[in-house]
Structures are given as C-alpha cells and as structure tokens.
Write a structure and sequence with these properties.
GO terms for molecular function: ABC-type transporter activity; ATP binding; ATP hydrolysis activity. The chain is of the alpha/beta class. 52% of the residues lie in helices and 10% in strands. The protein has a 6-stranded mixed sheet with strand order 8-9-10-5-11-12, sandwiched between helices. A 6-stranded mixed sheet has the order 18-19-20-15-21-22, sandwiched between helices.
C-alpha cells in the first residue's frame, strides 16, 4: 500500500470510530491509564512536540535514549545500525530473560487503549491426499524403464492406455483445528504425512497430488484471500543464497514481505494515545514505529529475529555452501526459520525446524515462539523430530499423526490419559514425545502394554483413530468442528487479498539491490571471465594476425570470415556463465516466489538490466584487442558497428541461457538442453551450412536462428568495407561481395541493420519467455520415495511380523538386548562369521592445526591451534561408549584421529590396538567408520550396497554363498530386509529416508565384519522412533562382542542410558569425565553432584542434558573451578589410567595385526567388483545414460535431415565445407555434452570413493579403471547410433572401410571427451570449477580445430597448438577417411584430394597415424583421470 494511502487509511480509521480495531470496553480516557511523567519536563516537552505533528509525520518520529536519563528526537526510517543495536540491547539484553517482558510491554501498550490484536483459527475438514506412483521394479529407474514410463505417460494422456501407477494414500480423511494463542506440536513416525498436512494448510500442495477436503482461516475459504501472506511455511530444506550474510538474508525477506497491517494499527494506536494523553515508553515506541515502516534495507525486525534465534555471533557471516565457507548446518536451519519469522504472517507452519540443533537451542527458540504466540495472539503448528521433555512441555496442544490418520488431537495434558484408556502407559524414564511416536509402531508398541489382566494384541492406527472419536477430547473436537466459525469475529485486515507485502517499486528496488550485491560477491567470477576473454582475444589476434591476413583472393576472405565467426562464437559461449549462475539460484527463487516475496518479472528484470554494462565491458575489451590486430576494416564506424553487434549478441546469448536454465530447472537437463540449443543455432548460423544448402524443411530454423542474424550482420560489416572493395581480374564483382556469395551470405548493406533489429527483438522475446517460464513453471519433482513390493505400509515396521526384540519394560531395556534370550539366539544366528576381539587404547592424544588466517588477523600470535589436549582412555569389546561434549569440544576430531581419517594437522601421542602400536594399513581392515553424512552410491539398491561392501572387505576365503547369507543376516540385524530392493538415492531428493540411510551406513560397515566400529552422530536428524531403531541396531552390534564408540549430540534419556560408558569433553578438547554411566546414569550423576556448587538433577530430567548444562564454561566461571583439572585429580582418572596402562600391554600369546596383502581382494577382483557396481549405477542413472542416448539420437536425426545427402555432392568447395561443418558441429557439441554431463556423476561418486578408499576397500587405480571401462559400451552404442543414422542420411560413400573409419573416429572422439571431463573433475574440488576449466579448453580447441582457420593459414608460432588439439586430429581423420582418396574434379579445376592437401594440409596416407593419435588421446585422459583420482584428495578433515 502506498504511504499516502496508509495516511488516508489511518484518517478514515479515526473518522469511522475505529471499525477495524475493536474496542475491548476499556475507558481509554480513564486516569488509571494515563502516564504523567512530571519528573522529566524536558522529555515531556520533546514528546509534546512530536504529539503536535500530523499522524503521518508523528509515526516517523520517536524519542531515543542516547544515555541514561537523556533522550533525543530521531527520524525512525533513518535509524542506523548502531542505534538499532543499542535499542535492541536496551529492550532485550538477555533473550532468555528479557524477551517475554519486552513482548508484554508491547501487549500492554496496545491493551491500554483498548485495541484488540486479531486472532486466526485454522480448520481442516475431511482432508484426503493421494499420489500415484510406480511400485516394485517399475519404480526403480533403469535405461529401459525411462523410455517405457515416458511412452506409457504419453499413451495415457492420449487415453490409449490405462496407467500402471498405483494409488497411495498420504492423508486419510483428517479433520481438526489449530487454535490461536496456543502452541500446537505435530508428531508422527516417518512417512506419516506430517509435511503433506502442513503444506495442505499453507495452500502449497503439489498440483500432481489428488486433494479433497476443506481448509478455512477464520471460516473463510482459501480462495477468498491469499494464504501465503497469512501463513508462513518453514520447510525442511535450507535454501539460501550462499553469497549473502545471515543479516542480509533475513533483511531481504523482511523487506519483501512488508509489515502487514501493523502501520494502520500503529496509526490508530497513536491517535488513541494522543486522545487519552498517554505517553508510551520511548524505547517501545521507537521499536514499534521502526517495525511498522516497510521497504527498508535493514529493519529493527531483522535485529530482533537475529537476537531471539541466537544468530548474533554469525549475523555478518556468509551463509555459504559446499563451495563457500559459511555458517554451520544448525545455524543455517535457524536462518530458514528467521527468514519467514521476519514477515507479518499470523500463522506459523514449521516443518522439523530442530534438525541439526541441540536441545537447548531448540528449547530457547520454541520458548521464544511460545511467548510471541501467547502474548501477541499468534497461531503456531510445529513439527519436531526429537523434542526433549522440557521442549515438549512448552506446547499446549498435540496432534499425533500416523499412517495418514490423526490418532490424537487436543490438549497436551490429556494425551497420556487417552493412551492409558487404550491400555498403554508411558514408562517413568521415557520422554512423552518419544512414547507417542513409538506407541503406534508394531515393533515398539508391545513394551508399553499396561493391562496385565488382558493378553496383548497389536492395536492398529485405525483402531486408535476410531477410539479417539469416542474419547472426550475427540468428542469436543467434533462438536467444535460442527459449529461454524462466526466470520464476524474475524478482523477484515487479517485476511488480505493483495498478493505482495509492499508495492512493486519497492520490490524492484529490493531486487536490484540484491542483484548488485550478488554481482559484487561474485566479482571473482566476472574478473576471471574477463581475464579468460582477454587471453582468448590475444590468442585469437595472434592466430589471425593482420600481417598474415591477406585480402587478395576469395580464400583469404574465407580465412578472414573465420576470424569474425570466432568473435561471434566466443560471445555465444560467454552466456554459459548465466546458465550456471541462474541454475544454481533457481531453488532459492522458487522458494521466494512461492512465498510471494516478489513476482517473477521483478526477479528477472534486474538480472537483465545489470547484465548490460557487463556486456559493454566484455565486448569493449574484446574489440579493442582483436579488431585492428586481426586486420579487420580500419573504418572507425565499422569498428563501432561491430562493437554494437557483439554487445547485442552477448545480450541475446545471456537471455537465451537464462531461459534454458528456467526451462531445464535441473543441471543435467539444463546442460543437455543448452547443448542442443547451441547446436541448433550453430548449424543454422549460415557459417557451418550455407543458406542455399539449407533444406526446405529446415529453412524455418535458419530464419529463427538469432546467430544467423548476428553472423550475417558481422560479415556484411566487414566484407562491404573499403579493404574488400577492389575487383579481382576476370571478375565483375567486388572481392568482398564474392566472398559473401561464395559462403551463401547476403551481400546487401541493409542486412546489417536487419540483423541488429532482429537481435534486439530476440533479446526482448527471450527475456519475456524467461519471465513467463519463471512465472508458471515449478521445480522438478523434489522428493520421490521408492517402495519395494514387499512393503505394504511402513518402510520398516508395518510388515506384519512381530519384532524379535520386543518385551516388556523400559525402552532402555529394549535397547539393551542382552537380557532377552531370543536376542542372544538372534545375535548368534546373525553373526555367522568369526572375528577377533580388539580393544583400542590411547594416551596423551594432542591434535593441532595451523592457525587460521582469520584468527591471526585478530591478533593471535601462535602458529598452531590446539584442538585436542592430552586425551587418554580406552575402548573395549562388548562395551558401548558415548563420546560427548558441546559443539566445538572435539568429539568428531578425536574419533577421526583414532580412526586415522584425518587428512591434515599434527598428531601427537600413542594409539595401540590390543597393546600393539596402530598401523593404519592393517587397522583399516578391522575397523568400521560410520560417518555422520550418509554417503552411498545413489543408484544401487540396499542389498547391492551391502553385497558390494562385503565382496571387497571380507576375507577372500569366504565363499560367495556364505557371503550372501552373511549379508542377509546383517540386513535382519539392522532391520533393512523389507528395503532390500529399495534404491538408495540422493539425500533429500530420492530414495531412502534419513533414518533408513543411517541404518544402511551401519550395515555397510557391519558386513565388513569389523572388530572396532566408530559411529559419528548415528541419531543426528532422526525422530525418536527412528533413533530408537538405530540405537537398537548399535546395541545389537555391541552385544556381538565388538568395540563400538559413538559421538552423540543431545540424546533422549533412553538412548543415553543405552550406553555403558561415557567420555565427556569440554570446549577446547579436554576430558572432564571418562567412566561408566551406571544404572539410570547413577555413576555419572554421582560424580558431578559430588562437585561443590553443582545443583542436583531434578526427577524426570534428562541426565545428558543436565550433564551438559552443569559443565558449561559459564558454570566453571561461576564455581571458580576447572572441570578438566578436577577430573585429573579424581580417583576415576587414576582407575582409567591404570586400565589404559593395562591395555597398552599385549596379552600373553597375542600377535600383532598382520595381513599378507594391503587389500582384502586382488587387484583384478577389486576391478571386477567396482565394475559390477558401476554397471548397475550407470544402468539406473537415466538422467545421464538415457538422456544422453536420447539427445544423441535427436541430434543424429536433426543432422541427417539438415545435411541430407551432403556426402554425395563433391563438385564445389562449399560442398566440402558443408560436409566438414557437419562433422565439426557434431564433434564439438556431442563431445562437450559428454564431458559436461559426466562431471556431476564423477563428483557424486568421488565423495563415495573417498569413504571407500579410507576404509581400505580397494586400490584407487582399480576404481578408476572400472569407471573408465564402464563407459566403453555406452559410448559404443552412442557412437554407433549416431554413426548409422548420420552416415546413411548424409549419403557418405557406402564402403565398409569408410563406414568403419567413421564409427571408429566418432567412438574414440566421444571417449576422449568423456575421459577429459572425468579428468578435469578429478583435478578440481567440484564440478563448477571443472566446468570453468573445461570451457577454457573448449575455446582453445575450437580455434585450432582447422575448421575456423586451416592449419596452413595458422601462423607458425601457433601451429604447435594445432598438433596438440584433440579435435583437430578428429576432423583430420573424419575428412581424410571420407575424402582423402577422392579424385573427383571440383569446379575450380583441382581434385578433392589436391584441394584438401593444399587448403587444409590433409594427406590420406596419414590416416593410420591419426587413428593411433586419437586412441592415444583417449588413453592419456583415462590415465590422467586414474592418476589424479589417486593423488588428489579434496576432502578436508
């Protein structure tokens, strides 16, 4: 709303008696509500001066405390960063203590004048959501399934075939109410439909889902208002611009979302206070005024959000990503939350906002949200994974969802009463939230059965849901839903019908500021691009040097034409930067667009406009370097005309690739689509294939190709100049016109301006199409799950079989399976392979790294930063040890040091295995390491992943049948059998859930039959039910007699007490407790309670949380002690030291670990197993193999029809140029596409390779050769498909030798391009850098192919570059094998063979050498890939 409109609105509010803000019945003129501060006359005078201003001006002025007792009048919109910071510090010094009192002051101010803050109630009735999906083998992607599924979809759309997809119910007739002023917690096991319910309430369900039912806000249907402006949905994925700081991210969100109706409310508030002679608190007044002014770059709301979310320490740190160092995962999750809290949304829908956060941080955030909801009449519906008991207590209502049905919805106080009425009781030392998520599960339900007089039978979700309807809470809910909401109670300002929070001009300003900041932060990329452009300009200038560029014959003109074509080529390719940058930012754009931050055109406009000056700079540098150096026409006007034309070409290229990125929306698809577009443009530009040779069925592509207009205009600009104005002997036309006509270009001067006009038109059209694509297209399917046919309902716990680990008692007992004889039998059955028990002992472990430059810049003088300080301890077989500490205490660092996973730093101290010094090569054979990030090959099934690990890591004496049986037993142990045929997939994109990946990570290590297992955060990011499954797996593993150590973050009571021993580190890497936990953690509690000043643990509290709270640095300062020093002087330390010394001595008769070979399998066996894995990975990776095959087939058909019958025509020079042009274009684009598409594949697999290499699974060379060999059949099919189609349609000579030569050269060319892509990926940290380096090589190779400028015309000082250009050898081979022995006479009087020898320097008798060299290029790149993958390690630990 415009500000003058707001002013009018506030005046109309005054005139109509405040119809919008309801009077609560208070007498606003009562003296009890007046504040007369006679003690400070000066401040009263200042306030009186503000009061005399008109309302609009008064809302922009405030009194700000500048020192104790002294205030100053300030202009609110111009508040600086320091002023805002001081204001926030006065209002909220400590978030934990001051936030509530601050919000109460705001509420009291509003209540004083009788204004009621609007409330929002959300109802959902009979919601049903269904999806269609393939089941079983059809759900697994494969080369054939890709094409079969696409064909079936087309036939189904044409109503020629019924779909084979199955209907899956996600939500099943759910109804309920989310009440205002109450915190509602959403709980449920994995795949229960929590995210779908939240999206349905936010109005953001995927359109492909079948939705029925009704959602209302204060009784209004969603079509009556804009739900995205009322409801803030905070998703699980943290999508942010990595180049922005935390503050900039939240500030941009606040700026776009606006302030809602708060300005109007403040205007009415000010009017009523003036009428009642009430003087508000100056700081509260300044805050409210600052918070109600929209369109500011940074606002006080941003500072408030940063403060309550605990982001002050990292507010000015970049968000970052895998390429840019930034904030931690937990901080990034808080930024995701803050981004939506910064807006005026009344309803908060939060999906698993605690992922990556410790329980204390989660508690503080939820507590702040509770205060805001309760005091300011908000509405919150929040899904959490593992809420700690104290966090759970903060919620008012609970919604328990299971299998798409609501099991319970109502007050938190009644939830246990409901389940007790069903016969289930929550144990004393069990978190209620954990109990609720497990009680509906078949595997976990039995332990909670409390009716001893009745036999237990499994209670289904349907039975729970039905029973809830007759429970008194359920009846009350039904009665509430049956009573329609009184719409008269709804505030009309609440449900807005406007799409955006601020006016379009403010949004444009915000997006321009955003784009400028991104350009500044990415300045390195732009500078690198400029340097690359200058280097290519210098090379191009010296290749086409004016002293070598003659203007005497048409042949000279053709070479000069190559020079100007090279300029057009460079600026067409320069747009690829926009492709990458647009593609990377699209996920963030889609999130912000769907949240109605701005319309798509507002996002697209600054990107286009700000790209224009960049184009001017790039083209200016290019033209200045190349124009006169290349000997182009020296007319200054032609110089300026070429400058204009190349600027327009650059702009057109950028617009085209932004459009391609918007259409593709996924990098593999986008790269393929971009290659296809470039190929179509190049083939129809008039240079590769002349206009008079274009077939009539392709002439439309010629006329709509923007590159054709660019190429025509630039050659006309050059060849109609004075330099080409002379007439050759025996001709009637000027030389320039002859050159133009010989290559089929237009020769009229006005075609330059037609070209300019056409390019302007294309720029406009492409930018408009880009805007439309951004407006109407949605992200490609983000989250797809694969279900195997033997899974009926839930992935792992609803298959109708009672768990062997079920028995009555506490959940801690459940995890400690040694008490159950069935478990012992299961354990013995499960571990059929023998292994040696080993302990690991370590003394005085010190680990340090080089001092980071950031810390040196702050004045730190030491050379090294010590992360671990003298850690001593031991881990024994059959003992489960927890490694704990606050963030930054060195948990993972210690584990990495002990496991030998560190790639840098300085390690001191001794590590012994069963008393013998540790040798990493042998230790890797008996050790398993489960990393926190679950890294697996995405295109294998669960069973294949385990079999692969077992094949490489088990002793070769174990035969195939025993190995497979062992794998199956491990799958049973970790409860993965129902998922054996499920595809692993990529985290957050496809395949297994987070919890299933955790179990797979553990299983992959277990099938290696290790003696010692390290587990880094095995329960991180899991809900309580999933964490219990994982910990049951861990406990089962320990009970087989293995040594297991886990780092753990903030476990629940039952998970914590499943451990036997604890090693606790404090910040700085010092141990403060090493010893047993004891029953119900009694030993650990006794130790800490024995320290003077430590408060005793309260009944029901989590011992893990209590332990971390009482051992913080703040507690050390308060008590005046050093916990590390106390431990070192304790009896416990003495006992541990004695134990360590005892374990440091080998037991009698024991031998040091020794294996005859470094790896379990022979080199050839490693190669075969790696090849087996790669074969399945490639077969199922349809976005790579199938898309590449489809792309190749389309290109072949396109080329075949475009260059139809070209091989049979050999009478003119142009015929040969056309034929060579087809080969040049195919080699360039098919090759580049192969190289570009393999890079992301190698990048993903390389991450898996680092883990497998560290585990000692195979030699890096065996892996590399398997990666190389697996490409051979796919590229053979690609080359054969392309060769057969093109060779026949272009009508090359049908002789066996020529055809086989054609296939041979295409095959090895595609091979060396693919291996080149793999090599560049192996020598760079990520595929973005690999793409930049590759592009530089493509530009050089293109220049020296011999097509743009033949070898005979390349200056002698650059000719060596021709011989080291792989593409030049390919073109040499293709041309010579087809035409090198042809004796046909051309129209100029010389034979084809003679022309090739004279113009290109090609000789037919050299074809054997060419073939050998091309094979050599493929072998060279493959070998370099293998060596690079072995030598370079970009994983930093």
């Amino acid at each position: 709303m415009e500000r003058n409109d707001l002013y009018q609105a506030s005046n109309s509010l005054r005139a109509n008696g405040s119809s919008r803000w309801r009077d609560t019945g208070y007498n606003v003129f009562s003296r009890s509500f007046r504040q007369e501060d006679d003690d400070d006359d000066e401040e009263a005078l200042k306030w009186a001066a503000i009061e005399r201003l008109p309302t609009f001006a008064r809302l922009k002025k405030a009194l700000l405390t500048i020192s104790p007792g002294e205030t100053s009048e300030v202009d609110v919109p111009k508040l600086g960063h320091e002023e805002r910071k001081k204001l926030m510090d006065r209002l909220i010094k400590h978030t934990e203590k001051d936030n509530e009192s601050f919000l109460l002051k705001v509420r009291q101010r509003v209540d004083r004048v009788g204004i009621e803050i609007p409330k929002l109630e959300v109802r959902y009735e009979h919601l049903k959501v269904e999806a269609e999906a393939y089941i079983g083998s059809r759900a697994l992607p494969s080369f054939f399934n890709f094409f079969i599924n696409k064909l079936e979809s087309i036939l189904h759309c044409l109503h020629l075939l019924s779909t084979r997809k199955k209907q899956l119910s996600i939500l099943r007739d759910v109804s309920g109410t989310i009440r205002p002023c109450r915190m509602t917690l959403l709980l449920g096991p994995p795949s229960s439909g929590k995210t779908t319910l939240l999206l349905a309430l936010a109005g953001k369900l995927n359109r492909d889902l079948k939705f029925s039912g009704r959602v209302t806000y204060n009784g209004h249907e969603m079509k009556d208002f804009v739900p995205q402006r009322i409801a803030a949905y905070i998703g699980q994925n943290d999508l942010h611009l990595p180049e922005w700081t935390v503050r900039e991210t939240i500030a941009f969100s606040a700026r776009c979302q606006g302030v809602g109706p708060s300005y109007e409310m403040l205007a009415e508030l000010a009017r009523r206070e003036k009428a009642a002679n009430i003087k508000p608190d100056p700081d509260i007044d300044a805050f409210m005024k600052a918070a109600s002014i929209g369109g500011q770059e940074t606002s006080v709301i941003t500072d408030y959000i940063i403060k309550i979310l605990g982001l002050e320490n990292c507010a000015d740190t970049l968000v970052g990503n895998e390429m840019i160092r930034g904030i931690s995962g937990g901080q990034r999750k808080r930024v995701t939350t803050g981004e939506m809290l910064a807006g005026p949304a009344k309803l908060l829908l939060m999906d698993e906002i605690s992922t990556g956060l410790d329980s204390s941080t989660t508690y503080q955030i939820v507590k702040s949200l509770r205060q805001k909801v309760h005091i300011l009449n908000g509405t919150a519906f929040i899904s959490l994974l593992q809420p700690a008991p104290e966090t759970f207590e903060l919620f008012d209502d609970i919604v328990l969802l299971s299998d798409g049905q609501i099991v319970y919805q109502g007050p938190r106080e009644n939830v246990l009463e409901f389940f007790e009425s069903m016969g289930f009781k929550c144990p004393a030392r069990k978190g209620v939230a954990d109990f609720l998520q497990e009680v509906t599960s078949r595997k976990d339900q039995r332990q909670y059965w409390n009716q001893t007089d009745k036999a237990y039978s499994f209670v289904t979700v349907e039975e729970f849901a039905e029973a809830f309807q007759s429970f008194h809470v359920g009846k009350r809910l039904q009665d509430d839903l049956a009573t329609p909401f009184d719409k008269n109670r709804s505030d009309p300002t609440l449900l807005t019908t406007k799409n955006y929070g601020v006016n379009k001009m403010e949004l444009i300003k915000a997006c321009f500021s955003k784009e400028l900041l991104l350009m500044k932060r990415n300045s390195f990329i732009y500078i690198f691009k400029l340097i690359q452009l200058v280097v290519m300009a210098v090379i191009g200038s010296t290749v086409f040097l004016r002293t070598e560029m003659h203007k005497k014959t048409p042949t000279d003109g053709i070479v000069q034409m190559g020079a100007v074509f090279f300029s057009v080529f460079m600026f067409m390719f320069s747009g690829l930067l926009d492709l990458a940058m647009t593609g990377l930012r699209l996920p963030v754009f889609f999130k912000q667009r769907d949240n109605l931050f701005y319309p798509a055109w507002v996002y697209a406009l600054p990107t286009w406009i700000l790209n224009i000056p960049i184009s001017f700079i790039e083209v200016a540098l290019w033209v200045v370097v190349t124009y006169y150096a290349m000997g182009l026409d020296p007319d200054i006007f032609r110089f300026l005309k070429q400058f204009l034309l190349l600027v327009l070409t650059n702009q057109m290229s950028s617009a085209l690739f932004r459009l391609v990125a918007a259409l593709g929306r996924e990098m593999t698809v986008t790269n393929t689509l971009a290659s296809f577009c470039l190929l179509v443009l190049f083939a129809n530009c008039g240079y590769v294939l002349s206009q008079d040779e274009v077939r009539k069925w392709w002439i439309w592509a010629y006329w709509i190709s923007p590159m054709m207009y660019s190429q025509n205009a630039i050659v006309i600009n050059e060849f109609l100049g004075e330099s080409w104005n002379h007439v050759l002997p025996f001709t009637t036309e000027k030389l320039g016109v002859l050159v133009l006509k010989s290559r089929g270009f237009f020769s009229e001067a006005y075609w330059y301006w037609i070209g300019v006009g056409a390019l302007v038109g294309f720029i406009l059209v492409l930018n408009i199409l880009n805007t439309l694509a951004l407006t109407y297209l949605n992200p490609l399917d983000e989250f797809q799950r694969v279900k195997s046919e033997d899974q009926n309902n839930e992935d792992d716990d609803r298959n109708g079989v009672d768990a062997q680990l079920q028995h009555k008692g506490s959940n801690t007992d459940l995890l400690r399976t040694e008490a159950d004889p069935d478990t012992i039998q299961y354990r013995e059955k499960g571990m059929i392979l023998p292994f040696l028990q080993h302990c690991i002992s370590f003394e005085k472990i010190i680990y340090a790294i080089d001092m980071p430059q950031e810390m040196k810049a702050q004045g730190v003088t030491e050379d090294r930063l010590v992360l671990l300080r003298g850690i001593t301890g031991a881990f024994r077989p059959g003992v489960l040890t927890a490694l704990m500490g606050v963030s930054g205490s060195g948990k993972t660092t210690l584990m990495d040091v002990l496991a030998g996973r560190k790639t840098g730093g300085y390690i001191e101290g001794s590590i012994k295995i069963s008393g013998f010094p540790k040798k990493q090569e042998t230790f890797a054979r008996i050790c398993g390491y489960c990393e926190q990030t679950d890294i697996h090959s995405p295109h294998l099934t669960v069973y294949e992943s385990l079999l692969y690990s077992a094949c490489l890591r088990l002793d070769p004496e174990v035969n195939s049948e025993t190995r497979k049986m062992f794998v199956k037993e491990v799958m049973e142990l970790v409860e993965l059998t129902p998922l054996r045929q499920a595809l692993v997939g990529l985290p957050g994109v496809s395949g297994l859930s987070l919890e299933q990946r955790k179990r797979l990570t553990i299983a992959v290590e277990l099938v290696a039959n290790p003696s010692i297992i390290f587990m880094d955060e095995p329960t991180s990011g899991l809900d309580a039910r999933a964490a219990a499954i994982v910990m049951r797996t861990v406990r089962n593993t320990v009970d087989t007699g293995r040594t297991v150590v886990c780092t753990i973050h903030q476990p629940g009571i039952d998970i914590f007490e499943a451990f036997d021993e604890l090693l606790l580190l404090k910040q700085g890497g010092e141990e403060i407790y090493v010893g047993p936990l004891g029953h119900n953690s009694c030993d650990m509690i006794k130790y800490f309670e024995g320290i003077e000043g430590i408060s005793r643990i309260k009944d029901g509290n989590n011992p893990a949380t209590w332990m971390l709270e009482v051992s913080t640095p703040e507690q050390e300062m308060a008590l005046g002690v050093d916990f590390a020093d106390l431990y070192e002087r304790s009896e416990l330390h003495k006992r541990n030291k004695a134990l360590t010394e005892q374990l440091n001595v080998p037991s009698p008769g024991s031998k040091q670990l020794h294996f005859p070979t470094r790896y379990s399998r022979s080199f050839f066996s490693q190669f075969l197993v790696c090849l087996w894995k790669q074969r399945w990975s490639y077969w199922r990776n349809t976005s790579y193999t199938a898309v590449r095959f489809f792309f190749t087939t389309v290109i072949a058909l396109m080329f075949g029809t475009m260059f139809w019958n070209v091989g049979s025509r050999r009478t003119r020079y142009q015929d040969l140029f056309n034929s060579m042009g087809s080969m040049y274009a195919a080699v360039l684009f098919l090759g580049v596409q192969n190289a570009a598409s393999i890079q992301p594949i190698v990048h993903i697999e390389r991450t898996v390779f680092y883990r497998e290499k560290a585990a000692g699974m195979y030699s890096p060379m065996a892996y590399a050769f398997a990666q190389v060999v697996v490409e051979l059949p796919y590229i053979l099919v690609q080359a054969a498909t392309y060769g057969i189609i093109v060779y026949s349609m272009m009508a090359f000579e049908w002789s066996a030798a020529k055809f086989l030569w054609y296939i041979f050269f295409m095959y090895f060319t595609l091979l060396y391009f693919t291996f080149f892509g793999m090599m560049t990926m192996a020598i760079t940290p990520n595929f973005h850098v690999a793409a930049i380096i590759s592009t530089a090589f493509y530009g050089l190779w293109n220049l020296f192919t011999g097509f743009i400028v033949p070898r005979t015309r390349i200056p002698i000082w650059w000719r060596w570059n021709y011989w080291i250009c792989p593409m030049a050898w390919t073109l040499y081979g293709l041309i010579v094998s087809q035409y090198g022995d042809v004796k046909d006479v051309l129209d100029a009087g010389e034979t084809t063979e003679e022309f090739l020898k004279k113009y290109f320097g090609f000789r037919h008798d050299f074809v054997g050498v060419v073939a050998a060299v091309i094979v050599g290029w493929a072998l060279l790149f493959a070998f370099l890939f293998a060596v690079s993958i072995k030598l370079f390690n970009f994983q930093r630990r």
